[in-house]
Amino acid sequence: xxxxxxxxxxxxxxxxxxxxxxxxxxxxxxxxxxxxxxxxxxxxxxxxxxxxxxxxxxxxxxxxxxxxxxxxxxxxxxxxxxxxxxxxxxxxxxxxxxxxxxxxxxxxxxxxxxxxxxxxxxxxxxxxxxxxxxxxxxxxxxxxxxxxxxxxxxxxxxxxxxxxxxxxxxxxxxxxxxxxxxxxxxxxxxxxxxxxxxxxxxxxxxxxxxxxxxxxxxxxxxxxxxxxxxxxxxxxxxxxxxxxxxxxxxxxxxxxxxxxxx
Length: 262
Description:
The protein is an alpha+beta fold. It has a domain at about 35-110 and about 120-220. Helices cover about 25% and strands about 25% of the residues. Pfam families: SPDY.
């Protein structure tokens, strides 16, 4: 795009395209922008508690029952408080877990649970992942670089393990307690197996021969618009959910010719 064709952005200045890369498979793309998750949670009505926490990012759900935090070098800690025996749960994801995959879980935290029974394995099977029943139930990506495993052991030791590796070794991994709600894990595996590439800026492309990259030029306002569209969708969904809840909680008003008026 020539300077004459570039969008005007103010007196004496012009917005210049920045080089980014579309990376696939997404599970080898590297960590990404933490704001992808933080801004969505904020737009969904979660409370930002970062100032009161040693974590880089810390959010608490409106009902105070859920917590999402990112703290290097440990990475992501996502927790659900106990509401009864054995109901507390935790998911830990290492720092280089792509934020788009983490968001598969954290976005699901903000939404109403579907009436359909969750199936953690269904998104993987739909995208050609190979499943194997052995000592542990395992699903492996078609290229062999990512894995989801339900580790069976002694009572109380069962857990989920998810991870990805390239030619240099492990890139990231995640563990989840066996009590983690399955619809949250389905959100995670849906994001994990999605075939769409994710975007990273120049200088943030992992050094690996197992990824495919496509160079693209992106205007800063395009990046801002994409983020704003994501947060706007979160605000709209939150408003709709709160409005529905408020409507259902209102007492029914009498109707008909004998109804009293106030």
